[in-house]
């Protein structure tokens, strides 16, 4: 038995477990640093920025330095994006209560359109932060691009929905683990298919350019 190979694999596994735990602690700490309201979105963007570098093969960079640099640089812009996302979510929440509490029979016809719009909104959320950290775009472009990427990659969107639900379901049974593994697991699961989707779109764009 090759014990050196086993130990090497074990050390690598422990190293990644430690990295993920450290990243999640940074995410929680810097969310609290911004009093949650102002810290959540910058911390989430910073977390995705770290995960993006991992996905691109840069797993030796300083996690804290990458996180802190992104947190500072994108603090205002990510909070503006957060206000827009929160406002849209609040509008949908108010619409939902209006529809279920309205005595009007006509309003009941809005159930299907409402749930379609809500599904599209949730699906877009999976791409908004990855696009934000992957491309240098204005916020309006980030939101528009998230819609088109979502439409062009239905399978990736489906995997994100099912996988995220699965992670949240498992974590709901072991709440203490959320301190070390929650946002980081979601970021990993979301960023991987999102990055693949970006690569596919870039490849298609190159083929279109070459075909002209």
Which helices and strands, and how do they pair?
Blueprint: H1 3-33, H2 40-55, H3 63-73, H4 75-101, H5 111-134, H6 139-152, H7 154-173, H8 183-211
Helix pairs in contact: 1-2, 1-3, 2-3, 2-4, 2-5, 2-8, 4-5, 5-6, 5-8, 7-8
Q: Major sheet: size, sense and barrel closure?
A: none
* Tally of individual domains: 1
Rounded radius of gyration (Å): 20 Å
Indicate the multimeric state: single chain
Give me the count of strands. 0
β-strand amount: under 5%
What would you say this structure looks like, in words?
It is a single chain. The chain has 212 residues and is mainly alpha-helical. The protein has one domain. It has eight helices and no strands. The protein has helices spanning 3-33, 40-55, 63-73, 75-101, 111-134, 139-152, 154-173, 183-211. α2 (40-55) crosses α4 (75-101), α2 packs across α8 (183-211) and α5 packs across α6. The protein is globular.
Descriptive terms for the model:
212 residues, 8 helices
Provide a short characterization of the protein structure:
The protein has 8 helices and no strands. With 212 residues, the chain is an all-alpha fold.
């Amino acid at each position: 038995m090759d014990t050196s190979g086993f130990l090497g694999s074990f050390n690598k596994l422990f190293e990644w477990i430690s990295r993920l735990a450290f990243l999640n602690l940074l995410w929680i700490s810097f969310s609290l640093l911004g009093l949650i309201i102002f810290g959540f979105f910058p911390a989430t963007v910073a977390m995705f920025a770290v995960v993006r570098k991992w996905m691109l093969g840069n797993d030796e960079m300083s996690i804290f330095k990458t996180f802190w640099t992104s947190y500072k640089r994108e603090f205002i812009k990510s909070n503006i994006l957060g206000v827009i996302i929160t406002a849209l979510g609040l509008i949908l929440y108010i619409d939902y209560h209006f529809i279920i509490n309205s005595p009007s029979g006509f309003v009941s016809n809005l159930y299907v359109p409402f749930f379609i719009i809500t599904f599209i909104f949730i699906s877009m959320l999976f791409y908004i932060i990855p696009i934000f950290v992957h491309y240098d775009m204005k916020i309006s472009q980030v939101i528009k691009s998230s819609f088109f990427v979502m439409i062009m990659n239905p399978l990736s969107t489906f995997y994100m929905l099912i996988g995220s639900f699965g992670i949240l379901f498992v974590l709901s049974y072991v709440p203490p683990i959320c301190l070390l593994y929650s946002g980081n697991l979601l970021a990993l699961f979301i960023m991987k298919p999102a990055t693949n989707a970006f690569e596919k779109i870039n490849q298609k764009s190159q083929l279109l350019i070459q075909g002209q």
